[in-house]
Amino acid sequence: MRRLRSSILSITAVALALGTAMPLFAMATTAPKADTLTLGREIKPFDEYILTASSVRISRVSMKTGKAASYLQDDTVRTQVSGLCSVVAVTEDGQEAVKKVTIRNAQSRYKDTLTDVLPTGTEVEARFSDAGPVYIVGTDTLEPDVVADLSGVIRSEGGLKSGTIMDPHKPVAPGDVWSIDTAAFAATLGPPPSNLKRTVTGTVRYDKIDTVDGTPVAIVVMEAKAANAFAEIDGVTARNATVTAHIELAVPLDKRFPAVGSATTTTMEADIGEAGQSIHFYYQVTDALTFRR
Asked: Is residue 117 within 8 Å of residue 107, measured between CB atoms?
């Protein structure tokens, strides 16, 4: 099994809604100033930008018997994509619903094999909904393996959902820290276990003000964790289910413009089976994207 396919993959909605432990930007800073900070930004039809994106997906499945563990699966898939994006349609809150991407480069590495996911010059129509992304070339819908490669790098950007989770709702300056909206974050995780209380904690830090391509931007970092995060994996009851998210977001200080970059590391872990003999699932996604307009 090349990739872990399960209902918990819906956690990519966290990334769609909203950046890695390595900073995206290191530029000259300006003097700190308290101001309102709106992190959810609308995207408009006909918007165009150059996308540069990378994704690393690690999936591990191990059998635990007592204190001993043996790996049943240990996969790492790396994907990188660059291309010109043209927005066709958006949702009511300004999140991309349909866009066309002209591919400059699209490659995936699994073990020692580097594969061209799509040829240079391919025009992909990406359609986004709650059911997941659909990628179309000409009249053909791309196969599930290609969708798995593209889903972390050609995503639905923009919208107000990240603001619902992360906005401070008061003037803030670099260095300030505030709590996330835990209910809004929990809503991205799907149904909780019926017999356990799900707990969510998280904070956002206004890291600094930088300049990207001449544009002053705010860099914010979110750290969040959920215990008893989800109920099942492929229909089987999950135990000890946790989700942790580290998100770095760069938004222009001018609130009229959308984000210029994001980086996200999301980790999910859970067990199925009894404590004496169980299967442990570990899934981590690290995505980094920049948007140049």
From this structure: yes
- Identify the three-state secondary structure at position 180: coil
Q: How many domains does the chain have?
A: 1
Query: Tell me: the pLDDT tens digits for 130-189?
Result: 999 999 999 999 999 999 999 999 999 999 999 999 999 899 999 999 999 999 999 999
**Does residue 113 sit within a domain?**
yes
- pLDDT category, 19, cuts 50, 70, 90? very low
Distance, in Å, from the CA atom of 176 to the CA atom of 153, rounded to the nearest integer, reads 30
Residues 77 and 177: their CA atoms lie apart, in Å, by 34
Assign 234 to helix, strand or coil.
Answer: coil
Closest by Cα among 265, 293, 250, 291 to 82: 291
Q: Cα–Cα distance between 266 and 263 in angstroms, integer?
A: 10
Cα dist from 273 to 11, 135, 175, 269, 277, whole Å: 22, 36, 44, 14, 7
Q: Which two tokens stand for residue 133?
A: 């992304």
> Is residue 2 assigned to a domain?
no
Q: Is residue 150 part of a domain?
A: yes
Alpha-carbon torsion (236, 241, 243, 244), positive or negative: negative
Residue 232 lies in a domain: yes
Backbone angles phi, psi at 153, to 5 degrees: -120, -30
- pTM (two decimals): 0.83
In whole angstroms, give the CA distance from residue 56 to residue 145.
15
Residue with tokens 């002209």: 102
Domain that holds residue 220: 7-292
Instruction: Give the other-Cβ count within 10 Å of 185's Cβ.
Output: 24
